[in-house]
Specification:
five-stranded parallel β-sheet, two-stranded antiparallel sheet, about 55% helix
Length: about 400
């Protein structure tokens, strides 16, 4: 590693919190440093929690636009009917609730950078207007025919395979190629476990400074436990666990018994059951409520697989179930109870009302992922937008 690389690594760590010296991370950081000073559009892909927004902020922070606005937009969290208005603004009276004129995110980001997270969730019609902005910088507010111009750099991100969306005619091919002028792929934490130690110390030192803890380190055994985990939530999950552990344990030196209290029991990966007659796309489930039965039934089967995997994991490690439950916090106890309830639900499936099953599944999934709607929607096999609609329908918000 040469002097220039070391300097770049220190800059990315100190200024943006980007940690990692493993080969997949080195490639991503190298591409980041090359792309940042340019005006090229950037597409960042990777699993949830891998740091896509962190990289986007670094691209902006190392560019000529760093003195101007960085606007972050989660396209999957904004209802489809409002997304175009939020992005491009609207005129007074453009729709029922448009009581006044409003600028959109693109106008707010003028001369700066806009980060479009979960770009794969963007409606097809809105993609047309986005392509126009990318190519000419021109757009119109909703309810107006006046042409406006902005100078905005676009960084997009997704945890979905956009190539598949293009093949399914759900994402414009020309927009896809326009967005991926530079394509940065972020690895899952499972792909660079050698960086876990550096990441842990970075997060631990940061939280220790905030809470006034004289943090001295972690034992080799405890570190090996961290490295052995699957980290489905990637760097974000490691960060959250580290901050929670140091805050609650208040230990200057972390031992293995401290770590095990905060490690969620990992379930082995299994092949999900996908009956041909029941599998459906997100769009189909939105348009035809009857097809949601397939999603629900598939999810019930997956829950039963989870229960079997949990039993196998307990037996394999010769650990009693009550010992695992005793080590978990209240949330995990509630989650375990709901897994059992859903197993019983599967046995009596024919006698339950469809709406009742659907409501219970949504509650179970949200509890399972500690309220993370994006992960819950992904597990349920529906779009995040559909989940929002269901939450409102069942008064679960």
């Amino acid at each position: 590693m040469n002097v220039s690389t070391i300097h770049s690594d220190k800059l990315l760590e100190k200024k943006f919190g980007i940690i990692g010296s493993a080969e997949p991370m080195r490639k991503a950081k190298k591409l980041l440093l090359k792309a940042a000073p340019t005006e090229l559009s950037v597409l960042i892909t990777g699993e949830t929690g891998t740091g896509k927004e962190v990289f986007a902020k670094a691209v902006h922070g190392l560019s000529k636009r760093k003195g101007n606005n960085f606007v972050s937009v989660n396209c999957g969290a904004i209802p489809e009917t409002l997304l175009e208005s939020e992005l491009f603004g609207h005129e007074k009276g453009a729709f029922t609730s448009a009581a006044e004129q409003r600028k959109g995110f693109f106008e707010t980001a003028d001369k700066g950078t806009i980060f479009l997270d979960e770009i794969g969730e963007m409606p097809f019609e809105t993609q047309v207007k986005l392509l126009r902005v990318l190519e000419s910088g021109e757009f119109s507010r909703l309810g107006s025919s006046d042409i406006r111009k902005v100078d905005v750099r676009v960084i997009a991100a997704t945890n979905r395979e956009l190539e598949e969306r293009v093949e399914q005619k759900q994402f414009r091919q020309d927009l896809y190629f326009r967005l991926r002028s530079v394509h940065i792929q972020l690895p899952s934490l499972r792909e660079h476990p050698e960086d876990i130690e550096a990441l842990f110390y970075y997060f631990a030192n940061n939280i220790a400074n905030k809470i006034g803890l004289d943090f001295k380190g972690i034992s080799h055994e405890a570190l090996e436990i961290l490295k052995s985990q699957t980290w489905e939530g990637n760097v974000r999950e490691l960060k959250n666990m580290t901050e929670t552990m140091l805050t609650l344990e208040a230990k200057e030196f972390i031992e293995s018994e401290n770590v095990t209290k905060y490690i969620r029991p990992s379930l082995p990966r299994h092949t999900k059951v996908r009956p041909t007659a029941l599998v459906t796309t997100n769009q189909q489930s939105d348009d035809n409520p009857n097809l949601e039965l397939g999603i629900i039934f598939r999810t019930l089967l997956e829950i039963k697989n989870d229960i079997q995997d949990l039993k196998h994991e307990v037996h394999f490690n010769s650990i009693k179930l009550d010992e695992i439950v005793a080590n978990q916090n209240e949330i995990m106890i509630q989650t375990a109870d709901e897994v059992i309830e859903n197993d019983e639900m599967l046995e009596s499936f024919d006698t339950l009302n469809l709406a009742d099953i659907e409501k219970r599944l949504i509650v179970f999934s949200l509890n399972r992922f500690e309220g993370n709607r994006r992960l819950a929607a992904k597990e349920l096999g529906i779009s995040e937008r559909t989940l929002y609609r269901k939450l409102k329908q069942y008064d679960l918000e």
